[in-house]
Write a structure and sequence with these properties.
heterodimer; A: 224 residues; alpha/beta; five-stranded parallel sheet; 5 strands; B: 382 residues; mainly alpha; three-stranded parallel sheet; 17 helices; globular
Amino acid sequence: LIRNPNVKEARFLPADAEGRLVEAIIGGESEASSRATQDLLRSDIPPIEIIRSMGKAMDVVGKKYEAKEYFVPDLVMSAEAMNEGLKSLLPKLQTVGKEFVGKIVIGVCRGDTHDIGKNIVVAMLRGSGFYVIDLGIDVSPQRFIETIKKEKPQIVGASSYISTTIDELRILNEEMKKAGFRRQVKYLIGGASVYPKHVGDVGADAFANDAMEAVEVAKKLVKA
Amino acid sequence: MSNLVGSKLDAEIDRLAGQFKEMASKEPSMSERLMNVMVFQEPDRLPVVMQIHDHSARVAGVTVKEICTDPKKLLYAQLCAAVKYKFDTVGGLADAYNFEAEALGAKVFFPEDSFPVILEPLIKEKNDLSRLKVPDFNKDGRGPYVIGASKLYSDKLGEYGFTSAVALAPWSMAVQLRGFNNIIRDIRKNPEFAHKILDFCGDVAEAFIKAQRDALGGGVSMSALGDAFSSIPPISPQIVYDYVIPHTTEVIERLGPTQWTGGYPIVEIPNWKQILEDAAVKSGSLVNMVCNLESDWLPPQEIKEMSNRLHKPWFYGIRAGIISKSTPGQIDEHVKNLIKVLAPGGGCSVFADQIPRDTPPENVHALVDSIKKYGRFPISIE
């Protein structure tokens, strides 16, 4: 049972719906995740509480991956299941932004279309209570800048899968500087071709090796 | 884009090919050395086996798009790299992961300085599979580019070149045609459809390899199935056993002796050795390759033991991160330690998993020099 901290009179989520949601995400079952989320919403549970339940599930998924019990296909299916549930929550999330751990704008850099890893990072961040604006693949610096201007995130995350697009991470940093946003945001980078040494090379603030690390690093960046 | 075209490009290719042949004629050929290792004999020294793609474009001053679309530019770039770094051979395609999908009709984007990208999966819905027909690689997509490149390598380098017939193994091709998330979803919800896709991919792989073999009148040095998408953890051991190995095995049975690189763990998992062994034995791959992409977890001693016990050749990858991010001294030490364990008695060797574009040239020199220095038989490393 999850206690809703925003309601003075103690109210609890229906145990089976929360359990079903957690199980559905861990098992990568999209339809079950969607049904459980809708059941929870019908019970008038605040979206942020539902997201915390999703976070619990993704936490289990992450631990199973680290233990080599789960593999990337399991992460993909769990991320999809969570995103399926999130579809019902998204319209309601806009109004509760202040309750999130932090806000992050994320995308795959210009010239790169590899998004399996980025999608897992997005799901893990959402499951950990971040408000994530996912710009998708092949994102130009201009699009990042426009979104930063509009959304005012605390963190900007960009990934590069192929070594030839690493320079795009540097260009994004330069463009953020030119636009005058660089000091207002923390810049997190990752992706298959990115190594810790690139933090200095491209002018980022932090690097994450995988989705689990991205969540931990993002939490630290928000507090910094 | 390079302005080296027409007769100027032809003249440069001839000049470099002459230079390379002169260099290579002084020693046993790559094929000879490779063959010795594969039959558990000791050659004069280990062959220098490199996967060099976009780095060769950088060395040659041409774009990645040029080497991915023009066989002459590809050969020129590979020759520039081979002469500069004193490789044992010249060969290889720059982009081995998109030919089949493109020949089947997928939209492919060619960035100027990066590898081609498939814009959207060709099999979006179930019915799309039944509309696909095995391509004629002599005319569809970049089939003529691949076949043209093989002929060019053979014409210009003869016995000093290493001409492979290369196709994607069924799993990686299925990922390219269907998209990773979709094929994973198929396995979960419609395994029969996933197997049908892989059956079709097997047919395409067979046709592609045969078209390349036919173009050279059977004169290919080796046939190979690339399968980078079948490693673990990108997929699970269960998928390797249920989908990757059975479909690959079927294609290899139809093709005859073929090298397959796939189905292996790139990070440490508890039963990694059993998976490697099963993939090698069940598939019947001619040579087995393995590369650890995470720290140094993969003990070369275990690979050597397995190779000797099963009497199957194994090549151990020197990972791209080590080649591009280490100092020349660190590379030398790494290669020395691997060769010391792997090389004695034949059966095992090392290869450069990939030389990334931004690798400092001194690192590539260090890599080649260390293989040539420590790989001389009899191996005598303290």
